[in-house]
Design goal:
Layout lengths: L26 H13 L7 E2 L8 E2 H5 L14
Antiparallel strand pairs: 1-2
Length: about 80
């Protein structure tokens, strides 16, 4: 029994992994990152979905509820 890693006999030697160098971070990269971060700012209130014990919450859920916390979808007019 061999202690070396077993290889498929047909595969032969494997090439070394390709290492991609890190890009240089420039001022325009930082500006783009700030612009992207602005798109994620959201001041809407968040809500915990009833019956979820706090496992589901967020702004989308808040949009699904009325001012009393009742679902707005699936009800007539």
């Amino acid at each position: 029994m061999s202690t070396e890693t077993e290889h498929d006999e047909d595969s032969g030697p494997q090439p070394p992994p390709v290492i991609t160098p890190e890009p240089e971070v420039r001022r325009e990269h930082r500006e783009k990152a700030k612009q992207m971060a602005e798109n994620y700012k959201d001041d809407r209130p968040t809500t915990v979905l009833p019956g979820s014990d706090g496992m589901i919450s967020g702004t989308a859920v808040t949009d699904w509820l009325d001012d009393e916390g009742k679902p707005i979808f699936g009800r007539e007019g």
